[in-house]
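Friendly challenge for the regulars: who can give me the structure tokens for this chain first? No prize, just bragging rights.
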Amino acid sequence: MSDYETINTFLVDIWGRINKIEEHSLATGLDSDISITEIHIIEKIGVHQPSRMGEISKAIGVTLATLTVACDKLENKGLIVRARSSRDKRVVNVSLTARGQAVYEYHKQFHQRMLEAALSDLTPQETAILAESLLKLQKFFLSEQS
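First reply, four minutes later:
Bragging rights claimed.
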């Protein structure tokens, strides 16, 4: 198998595995039914609180209507709260509840463990090459998204 085929196979395989492992890790570790989409919404909210609904929808690449439906579910699960801005009533801000913050932290720790495992045997030079390669891949995905 060529390097090209190896990398392509890896990328296709790893995407599905990461999502499945994340969902399983969340379900097992938190004893909760949280989808991968929901955890990515929680992740975006957790980085900067409160977050505007419009900013979150742009960040994860969904419509505001789709995000609203997802946030209804997250609110029903007790993971987020929504509030209208006091300055501009059109703006809805979202924050994590204490339970939502715990989910966010658990997910963050999962990513830390994943990165430590992936990078532990690499030299600083190999890590730098990997980082540069992944930035190029990210640039491609962003250009395809537009």
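Residues 3-30 form the longest helix (28 residues). The CA atoms of residues 59 and 81 lie 19 Å apart. Your move, everyone else.
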